[in-house]
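User: Predict the complex with coproporphyrinogen I.
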Amino acid sequence: MRQAGRYLPEYRDIRGKAQGFLELCYSPEAAAEVTLQPIRRFGMDAAILFADILLLPDALGQKLEYREGEGPVLEPVRDETAVAALRPQVIHERLAPVYETVERVAGALPDDVALIGFAGAPWTVATYMVEGHATKEFMEPRLWALRDPGGFGRLIDLLTETTTEYLSRQIEAGAHAVQLFDSWAGVLSDSQFARWCIAPTRSIVGRLKRRFPEVPVIGFPRGAGVKTAEYAAATGIDGVGIDTSVPVWWATEELQQSVAVQGNLDPLALVAGGQAMEGQAREILECLSYGPFVFNLGHGIVPQTPPEHVAALSDLIRNWRA
Ligand code: 1CP
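Assistant: Here is the predicted structure with coproporphyrinogen I placed in the model:
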């Protein structure tokens, strides 16, 4: 999950010198440095590329801005004319600095530390593209998907294609594994989940597997609950991220028999630290560490997180393993 970011003073330092968040994402030297900061400080087993899921819409030509305190703002794409105006043929020109960041990080990491590349899953990226900003209800994309599945499907198809190409380039540049973030999978009803979350993910995974059979693909259908089992079985992913709400015993029985499980400490337990953090971390380790498992947060790290708590958690996990 997000490792870098605003809780680290060394990140805030570099962020303060950059013109803006997008400029930082597109500056290979600075983005590589920010990717490496948590590895240097805490010695994790894997680094996650510093970038954002909204770089793809930006590369497709959709106007994107990150406003201070407000988050991302995009010029909404709400019909087929707007989809047709997107430019999938030029994405790699705009995304070239991201590939350079991957190359730099892969070259700088110790041999036993993996680099995880990533992209947003088509549904989650589409919610931002259609709504135009972060929301809690996702009225516009959900209604478009229900009223005009053919038209909305063209946007999803375009994202499925370009996401496959984007992740392929990250792998060619040196990413050892890739993750698909479907952060808003949880707002979809059962049938919509099958169509807009599972189907595009299966298509991306299938194509990546044909090109790079040895590269693990992790999926994170946040909020999917019991549907996570169907997601894991139907998409062909190697690992599944679970959010904080998924009971670990359930994940052991329903997921870990067939895929690796990644998760799921409450990011606020990491802010609280002490007993709250240790108790929850031990419960996760006791349940999940006997099968294929990646310790992770259940969602992104928050700016209020004291870095000392991350260090204490990292020690706890290391000592558990020993
Ligand atoms: O000024 C800043 O520093 C902006 C904060 C920030 C950061 C640090 C944003 C804006 N993005 C990121 C980096 C980021 N985003 C990473 C890199 C890894 C790392 O930081 O170590 C990754 C993997 C993401 C992924 C991402 N971006 C997701 C999926 C994961 C999740 O958290 O659910 C999503 C939904 C986004 C969108 C996004 N990026 C940023 C904002 C404010 C938002 C909108 C969030 C919302 O809808 O409320």
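The longest helix spans residues 149-173.
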